[in-house]
Write a structure and sequence with these properties.
This protein is α+β, with helices and mostly antiparallel strands. Helix content is 57%, strand content 17%. The protein has one domain. Strands 1-3-2 form a three-stranded antiparallel beta sheet. Strand 2 and strand 3 (82-87) form a beta hairpin.
Length: 115
């Protein structure tokens, strides 16, 4: 049991490191969009399928996405496992592809933390 707890702490630490890195990248991208003369955006709401089941894991994922510049979680459908996310530059309308692009990295780590 102790080994699992240590593993969860490791993955939680890695999650924070990944979050900070992705936040820096998103801030740079957001600043670039603001100063670009054509303001290259393609806003929309995408439906993201998630395999997370616990309330805390879903909340952390939703808040992580909201804290990233360019995305904001609008709604959570826990029963069906979907997040609805406003994305400033929609690159994929398919739920699977959008999930991979927006939340894939974070979700994989959260699955290891909250198993």
């Amino acid at each position: 049991m102790k080994k699992n707890k240590i593993s969860a702490y490791f993955w939680l630490f890695w999650y924070v490191v990944l979050f900070v890195w992705e936040c820096v990248k998103a801030n740079i991208d957001g600043a670039r969009r603001v100063i670009h003369p054509d303001l290259p955006i393609n806003p929309g709401i995408v439906k993201i399928k998630t395999g997370l089941k616990s309330d805390i894991a879903l909340t952390i994922l939703a808040n992580t996405l909201t804290l990233q510049p360019g995305t904001m979680t609008v709604d959570i459908d826990k029963e069906n496992g979907f997040l609805y996310v406003h994305w400033i530059d929609v690159k994929a309308a398919d739920a699977g592809q959008a999930a991979k692009m927006i939340s894939g990295k974070f979700e994989k780590i959260l699955e290891r933390v909250f198993v």
